[in-house]
Amino acid sequence: MKIATCTYQEFVPAMGHPVRTTVGHPRFPLAYQLAGHARLITPLGTMLGRPLDAYTLLYRRHLAASGVDAIRAELAEIAARHEAGRPLVLLCFDKLDKPGNWCHRSQFAAWWTEHTGEPVPELGAQPPIPPPGLFDL
């Protein structure tokens, strides 16, 4: 099973099957139908609005409490209801196109890769990579 991440706003159906990972449902119309809701990846409402370091600690504890096997089973159940061979694209609201922006989907991707060795690419816009400076060469 392949997994990727993106924003609701940047997702297009050619990317794969869109999966909600947010506490709330989008309040704007989607041009596509969601394939499911990955509840084990969704952060708790009490985590929202916290500084990055506190959020990261709480979110990683949340993921660890569910564990890789349960998360994989939930994602496999969503995937089984849809066309095989296409990735599940885990969606949230936060755009990552500016330096310093972060979200739980990128934290999940890092956690998943650390625990499974499976990469989780980001399909949305990302900050441009600055050219190397004089001392970076």
Description:
The protein contains 2 helices and 4 strands; from the N terminus they run E-E-E-H-E-H. By secondary structure, the chain is an alpha/beta fold. It has one domain. Strands 1-4-2-3 form a 4-stranded parallel β-sheet. Helix 1 crosses helix 2. The mean pLDDT is 91. This is DUF488 domain-containing protein.
What gap, in angstroms, lies between the N and C termini?
39 Å
Q: Using only CA atoms, what is the Rg?
A: 15 Å
The outline comes out as globular
Strand element count: 4
Beta-strand percentage range: 5-15%
Strand order of the largest sheet: 1-4-2-3
Quaternary structure annotation:
single chain
Low-confidence stretches: none
Question: Overall mean pLDDT score?
Answer: 91
Protein name: DUF488 domain-containing protein
